[in-house]
Structures are given as structure tokens and as C-alpha cells.
């Protein structure tokens, strides 16, 4: 395998760590003899590697696994308590009560709203009531027109004389025999169910 | 020590002791990774614990497509980056004062201080570049492993790493500290 300059530069950390196969190591070493740039890069990385991490002490290493375990346990318990909070009878009853209250409030509000909407509408006028006629708009000029209409009997009130058109006169003109016949016919019709 | 997947399955089955085994296995690696991102011992301690707690709480989301280590590294990086973003303003102010003091006393620094200086310069890099250097140089992850952890392509990792190293050398040179072969 032939490694070029750039590839060697890339794998210098692996070379310094000692994780490369022997063949590659010897190739890199041969390249380093001739390449000033790669030697400089290697010196720099070696210097970087000397930067150490301060040891936090044995107590930290010994207690960390237990502390992690305890924290995980505590967080799990917290999550569980939040979940179980909604599964206990009292919170369930409280939730139901709140929901009912909300539904009731909503219904009442809606009813009030409907009443208000109706109240805001035009006042109700029954079609069976007689509207008061406003005569103030009638002028003297209108009077001849009204008179003419009266003349052709368009505006006259139809006052029916019930006596005039009643059956009384007709019955009165019937003889006693005819009356009896009529009476029998009515009775017969009544028996037959009308 | 047991295989990671078996430990995860044991935990899901209800064996709480497997958590301790997983933490013991990876605590030093996660602590070092977080420290190189955060640069503060006390915050690193808290964030290391948070990383494991998050991982265990979300262990059912671990799909076994990548290794448990890669998945854990992703959580550690996200936790660290979130922390950096939340406290960026405070850190910037603090950092400027430290850098000022360091620059004025550069001629007297000893070897250990030089390393601390490099560490601070590393913090000046963009997040992705810093992350690529930390994972490749300090954690010894390969390009493909780094790509999985960072959630990008191998090509992107190579670019971030190359640009990061170049930029870091420039920063050090600007501040009068150059590493020669």
C-alpha cells in the first residue's frame, strides 16, 4: 500500500496512538524522514496529546456509578408520581367535577347568548292583531279617491244580513210533510255516519 | 467485562446493577471528552453524571445501529455543546481576562502552563473543528468513528480536523508560541 502525503497527515493521530499495522507504520516512518511538513504536524499533535485532563479523584470515580443509579431512580419515581397523580380516585373525581362544571357553564352561556340574540331581533307582531292605521299620512287630495272607490263599492264593509240569507225563510216556506221528510232524511244520514 | 449490548438488554429487563457496570466502563472516557470541551473540573463532573443519566433514561432509544460507545459519545457531546451555548457569554468574558493575563506572562511560563495555554487556544476553535481534534487526537477515534459520533461524513471530519489543526497553529503563532519539529 502506498500512502500519499495527505493521507499520512490524516492518520498521524492513529500512528501516534499505535493503532496502525506494522506495514503502514514503517511507510509513515520512511515518509517522515523526508517530509518536514509531516514532522512538524506530528510534533504539534504530540504537544497536543501532552495536554492532560485533571483527575477529579478516586472518590468521584468510586461514587459516580452509584450516583447515576440513584438519580435515574429518583427521576423515574418523579415521572411515575406525575402519572399516578391522575389515576387516584380523588383526582379522577375532581377532574370529572371540573369537566361537569365546564359543560354546565358552557350550556348556560349558550342559553344566555340565544336569549340575547332573540331579544335583539325586531319586536314580534302577531299576524292576527289589527295594526293601528296611521291616518296622519292621508291628505285632502286622497279623499276624492276614497269617495270614488266607495262609489264602486270597493271599500265598503261587507255587512252580511244573516237573517236575509239564512235557511229560516226556506224552512218557513216548507209544508209540515216536507218538514217531516227532511227530518227523517237528516236522522237517516246521522245513522249512516254522516 | 460484559458486552455493552448485553448490559443494555439486562437493564431493560430490570437489572439495575448493569447501569453501574456501564458507568464504570466509560466514566473516564466520558469525563475526559467532556473536560476537553468544557475546561472546568466541577462542571465536567456534573456534565459527566448528566450524560450517563440522560443515556440511561433514553436507553430505549438506543437502536443498536451504532456501538453503545458512539451513542454515549453523541450524548456527551450534545450535553457539553448545550452547556457551552447556554453559558457562552459568561465564558467569553472570563476567557478574555485569562488570555490577557497569560499573554503578558508568556516569557515565564513553564511546560505545564504551555499545555494549559494550548488547551485554552483549543477553546477558540469553532465547535466542529475542536470536536474533530478532540475525538481524533485525544480519544483516538478513527475517521469513520468520529464521523458517526459527529453525525457527518468522513470527508467532513477530515476537513474539520485539517482546518482545526491549521487554525490552532495559527492562533498559537499569533500569540507568539510556535511548535516546531
Write a structural description.
Chain A has helices at residues 5-10, 12-17, 22-34, 36-49, 58-85, 89-119, 142-151, 162-165, 168-173, 176-191. Chain A has 194 residues and is mainly α. The radius of gyration of chain A is 57 Å and the shape is elongated. Chain A starts with a helix and ends with a helix. In chain B, helix 3 (41-57) crosses helix 4 (68-86) and helix 4 (68-86) packs across helix 8. Chain B is mostly helical. The relative contact order of chain B is 0.10. Chain B has helices spanning 4-12, 17-38, 41-57, 68-86, 88-104, 111-123, 127-138, 143-150, 154-174. The longest helix of chain B has 22 residues, at 17-38. The model of chain B is unreliable at 92-98 and 103-107 (pLDDT under 50). The interface between A and B is large, with 36 and 42 residues.
Structure in a nutshell:
The complex is a heterodimer of chains A (194) and B (181). Chain A has 194 residues and is an all-alpha fold.
Top keywords for this entry?
heterodimer, A: 194 residues, B: 181 residues, mainly alpha, 76% helix, 0% strand
Helix and strand pattern of chain B: HHHHHHHHH
Helical content of chain A (DSSP H or I, runs of 4+): 55-70%
Q: What proportion of the residues of chain B form beta strands (DSSP E)?
A: under 5%
The DSSP helix count of chain B reads 9
SSE arrangement of chain A, N to C:
HHHHHHHHHH
Number of helices of chain A: 10
Helix-strand layout with pairing:
The complex is a heterodimer of chains A (194) and B (181).
Chain A: H1 5-10, H2 12-17, H3 22-34, H4 36-49, H5 58-85, H6 89-119, H7 142-151, H8 162-165, H9 168-173, H10 176-191
Chain B: H1 4-12, H2 17-38, H3 41-57, H4 68-86, H5 88-104, H6 111-123, H7 127-138, H8 143-150, H9 154-174
Helix pairs in contact in B: 1-2, 2-3, 2-4, 3-4, 4-8, 7-9, 8-9
